[in-house]
């Protein structure tokens, strides 16, 4: 069964990887501009180099199982992305890929997201409020998990809600004082600048959503999703209504 899942999902995974590579390349200058304000001005170039190398590797791994493909993406990013970004963007994939031995399901995608977030926080020694990619990933992953496990929404809808949460996470970094990385050396001068790592993380999530929209069914308009959930709560019985209030 898992082999069949890998066969069906492999083209979508490869499509998503290429889409992310394209987006990072197209946003290179903007990411560099953001990093120029509070970093080394190399975030855009480093990620572009890394994902360009990933694209070159795809032909050699396009027949591999999904977990092996994701693992190889991580290995390639570690080898080709300089600075702290290599381990943060690549090393985390090595760990999270272990959750995909049976391909992508609602359950495995949640486990993958949680493993990715946990490894990013561990490698970067960062928490919410430190003005890093964690400020984007944390609300995105928590929203995705809740949408799948508690609200029982389709994965596409859950991903749309996660991207919306990630967008707000990026905005959240602007007024923060950086506590990690080179930006922390600026102290209060880092306030007022959008974090480049949080931004590139949002771009990756946006491309994953764009590809998912062409292959999965579900509602992606977050406002409509909220209205539907509200209507469901109103028509639920007393037990369900009480549970919804607690959430």
At the first level of CATH, what is the class? Mainly Alpha
Number of alpha- plus pi-helical segments: 11
Task: Supply the number of structural domains.
Answer: 1
Radius of gyration, whole Å: 18 Å
Would you give an account of this structure?
The protein has a single domain, classed as DhaL domain (Serine Threonine Protein Phosphatase 5, Tetratricopeptide repeat). 72% of the residues lie in helices and 0% in strands. It is built from eleven helices and no strands. The two termini are 35 Å apart.
Write the layout of secondary structure elements.
Layout: H1 2-26, H2 28-38, H3 43-61, H4 66-80, H5 85-96, H6 106-124, H7 134-149, H8 155-173, H9 196-213, H10 222-235, H11 238-246
Helix pairs in contact: 1-3, 1-9, 2-3, 2-9, 3-4, 4-5, 5-6, 6-7, 7-8, 7-9, 8-9
Provide keyphrases for this structure.
disordered C terminus, mainly alpha, 11 helices, globular, single chain
């Amino acid at each position: 069964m898992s082999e069949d899942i890998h066969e069906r999902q492999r083209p979508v995974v490869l499509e998503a990887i290429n889409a992310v590579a394209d987006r990072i390349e197209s946003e290179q200058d903007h990411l560099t501009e953001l990093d120029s304000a509070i970093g080394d001005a190399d975030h855009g170039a480093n990620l572009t180099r890394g994902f360009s190398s990933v694209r070159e590797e795809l032909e050699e791994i396009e027949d591999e199982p999904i977990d092996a493909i994701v693992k190889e993406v991580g290995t390639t990013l570690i080898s080709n992305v300089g600075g702290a970004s290599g381990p943060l963007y690549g090393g985390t994939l090595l760990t999270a890929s272990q959750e995909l031995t049976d391909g992508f399901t609602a359950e495995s995608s949640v486990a993958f997201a949680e493993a990715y977030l946990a490894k990013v926080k561990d490698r970067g020694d960062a928490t919410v409020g430190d003005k890093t990619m964690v400020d984007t990933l944390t609300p995105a992953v928590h929203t995705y998990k809740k949408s799948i496990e508690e609200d029982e929404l389709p994965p596409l809808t859950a991903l749309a809600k996660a991207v919306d949460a990630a967008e707000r996470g990026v905005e959240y970094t602007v007024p923060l004082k950086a506590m990690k990385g080179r930006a922390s050396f600026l102290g209060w001068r880092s306030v007022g600048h959008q974090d480049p790592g949080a931004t590139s993380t949002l771009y990756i999530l946006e491309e994953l959503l764009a590809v998912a929209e062409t292959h999965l069914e579900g509602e992606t308009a977050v406002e409509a999703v909220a209205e539907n959930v509200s209507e469901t709560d109103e028509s639920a019985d007393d037990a369900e209504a009480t549970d919804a209030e607690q959430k």
